[in-house]
# Entry
Amino acid sequence: MLTVLLAAAGPLPPILPEIGAERPPWVFDADDEALLEAAQFGAFKALTSVTAYGGMVRDSTNSPVISLAGVGFQLAALALAPEHEWMTELEAETKALNILQEVLNTPNISKHGLYYHWIDATTGAPRPDWDGVSTVDSALFYAGAIVAGSRFGGIVNDSVTQLLLAADWSKFVLTDEVSGFPSGYLSLAWEPDNESQPTGPGELMPFAWVDAMDEERLTVFLAQTQLDPARSTDPELWWSLRRPIGNTPAGERVVFSPYSGAFFRTFYAQLFMDTPRMGPDNPAERGFSARTTTDFWENSRRHAQLHRDRAISNPNGLPTLGETGWPLTASLSPSGYAVPGVFPITQPIPGAQRPEDEPNPGGTSPNDGDGTVAVYGAAGALLFDQRAMEVLRYARNLTSPLVWNEPSVGGFGYRDAWNEGDGGWSAPKHISIDDGALLLAIENARTGRVWSLFHEHPFVQIAMERIGLTRSSCVWGGCPEDVDRDCVIGFSDLLAVLSNWGFNPGNPADVNQDNAVEFSDLLAVLSAIGPCQVGELPK
# Structure
């Protein structure tokens, strides 16, 4: 299988992890486990204890609006509550059901079944003066609802099913060429012509999700959970998303976004989608030779390394940044909301057409911001690099500025962000999507439970099949002897060794990686016959 994957990958070297590389869930020591549990509990309290219309969490502390994306994270948090004993089963299920029913029964907050980004925190009315009907925020809402539907089943999942089947994603597909792109991409949002008629006439924003970063992939994926193909999108849209290529200072190739180098762009989808067990996809098999074969978990690991290296080098001498202050991502800052980020060095793609296959040059200069570090970014980085734990420990113990409010005595754990310049600053507000991302990222780093719940849902399984994605029980590449990467070491792996006999550096059949496929590799496979269970998630 892997040999075929590499052969079919086209002219572009694939982005693959080292065989046998460890992947989450990780094993933490007792002190780190206690810290992570407390951090999750604090974020859970921030998402559930101070609520607004319909029991929904506000976009941020005392905000006049509710973010539907934040509500998605709130629903996923409720799905995790019983196992952590944050709430009883009945309490968590009842709250999730009430929220879903409020969303379903609140008038004028959706268009074609997708939802306004923001609704009023007091009345539940849509807020088109803030933003329109957002495809990515609807996707995040649906993803969290799916986790709750899988966890509680019954009438909670009936409500989730009602939501998913009401979504007409086809109405958000741009039918005209946008900025040189072909038609067929999903618009970022729909906006009404008249804000006083929020579900009246309107039009799609002429901006599309075109690159294969996490917001785009999650949005395109969730469109396939609509069971009616006429109300969904073309499954090939997943494969047509561009994959711009860059090189990091460490010499690693990455797929990146030319529009933002903020770290959240590399992990949001993976709060739900189990990339450690999905492994690489292969656009060349679908006719997209200018899109590189990519293991998106490995791609994000390389981005985490890029952000860490940038923070340590800190060429602008900014406060906070360093081994205990990374990655760079969107958050509150002393001067308002900021979106710093890091870019690799853009590399041309052989045979690519612009802008269909790769972006036009320019616009990718690093933006280190003012040195503010967001804690949820470090939690997201923990999915890919265990050194992010150093950031979480450090922030927990800071007193100037104070970043931690102890959950056991009523606090909400980590504040959104901090900056150690000018006497120190920490965010005075909590942001729902940041608390939610922190909680889910830590859960997957510890147990993988969000991944399991998301992929257990039958609509997610249908979407995987439609697009042509697979998910194994073990982590991809977890056992070197599993040459064909199917989580079973058997006859097919023996056959792969025999078929690639001889001097063959880099071939997956070279189990012991000595540049030759020979008797020692055959013996290694024979001695390991049976299932590969590396990285299997608990049921």
